[in-house]
Structure formats: C-alpha cells, structure tokens
Amino acid sequence: MIVRNEQQMKSIREAAQVAATVLDRMCELVSPGMNTYDLDQSGRCFIDELGGESACYKYQIGSRIYPAYTCLSVNDEVVHGIGSIDRVLKVGDVISIDVCTRYNGYIGDNCRTVPVGSVEPDVQRLLDVTEESMYAGIKAARRGNRVGKISNAIQRMVEDAGFSVIRDFVGHGVGKSLHEEPQIPNFGRPGDGPKLREGVVLCIEPMVNMGRHAVKMLGDGWTALSADGSVSAHFEHTIIVTGEGPEILSVPFGKEVPELALKD
Ligand code: MF3
Ligand code: CO
User: Would the pTM count as exceeding 0.85?
Assistant: First the structure.
C-alpha cells in the first residue's frame, strides 16, 4: 500500500479530475439511438482535449489487449464492455461508463451507470442502491480501519436490498499503474485485510447484479456479463484516505463533491 506525499497528491487529484470530467461529459451524451462505438469515440476526444491518455486502450491482461478507449457495459454486461457500432442504446437500457485515464503520470478511474431515458422502477432502484453502497464503502475508508470494513459496508447495503455483489472483480489501489495494492473486494468481514493508512489512494467500485452474482465471459475475451442475464450496475470513485477521513478525488473540474457523499 503506497502512501503519497503532498506533491504526489496534487498530481493525483488532477488526474482524477480529468477522469471525472470525461465521465461527466460522456454521461451527458447518453441518449436513445446512440451507438456505443460513437460514445467511446467521444470519450477518446474528451480525454484528448484535456491532455490525458486512456489507460484502457491497449491495456493488457495476459495475451489480451483492450481495443477501446473507455469501458461501456450495457444492461446485463457487468464490466469491460467494448463499444460497438451495432450496439444502439434504447429507452429502458442502462449503461455503465467506466473512464480510466492517465495524466501527470497518474491514473484516475471512475464509473457510473446511467439510465437511457427512463427505466423500470426496479432497475432505477438497482442503480440507486449500487451508488449508495459505493458511498457507504467510501465512508468506511478511514485511517486505521481494515479494508474489510469497506467491503462489508458495501455488501451489507447491497444484500439488504436483495441484490448481489460480484465476486470476480474488485476495487483496488491506484497510482502510476491502474491496479495496485490493496485489493478491495465488495464483500467480506470488517476485520479482513490490511489496515488503511493516511495518504493511500483507492478505487472503490461496487459491481452489483439484480439477480445472482455469477458472471460469464463474452467471446470477445473482455466483456463480463451476469450469468443469469439480470441487469448489472457499477459505480466507482477514486478517493484518498486523509487524516480527516476519506476525500473523493474523481470530481469534475468546476464541480462540487456529490451531495450523496456528504449525507449520513
Ligand atoms: N476501470 C477498469 C478496471 O479497473 C478499467 C479496465 S481497463 C481494461 O478494471 F482495459 F481492462 F478494460
Ligand atoms: Co477500477
């Protein structure tokens, strides 16, 4: 777990603001009739305009190389969906937009699931609960707490609502590379895992299925879907553990920290 100094924090904060600004702009574009290839290309342009680089493009896991600039996952897709000209958004869909950029040599990573037009009330509830569980996790990210405190807060909120947290993907530390120590599962006991220290930067990112938690992989080698075909949601912020508590870093330039984050 890497502890950052003031100078590094300044760079990391800007990096996270770039990622957040891109995500914000992409969310504003979401509308029925749009295809996910065009949305990804818009993301590519926004990243470019802000002087950043996509940290997804050409990201390699084993022999697989990620081909898109952002991750766009629709409905039952959980994570790492690849934009396609054939995937046209329609009213009632949800899309998870995961933006991960490099700026100042540091990575900022954030994600939001947004409705296309209006969605069924149970789908909206899935989005609301997933977002709230992310904030519950963030609030548990205090100096001296173990990572499991974050995991447990997320899991409890999600399962109390009757939904399931994904086991196969986890939150993570972040810095010069995308996935650093510690891993942050979205399930577990409060006493599990390492103790958090001041100056640690984390990505807290619950992924939640409306049905059961199992996932399966699409033939493209990247897209993970819910095995039971149920709708999935994903929210993520990059945060830092300060002496005064967690601070959300992935806030768009010129915007305030979201109100939900401050609510008790
Ligand atoms: N935010 C995603 C993650 O933490 C970014 C993945 S980049 C990809 O896993 F190339 F793997 F898609
Ligand atoms: Co992440």
Answer: yes
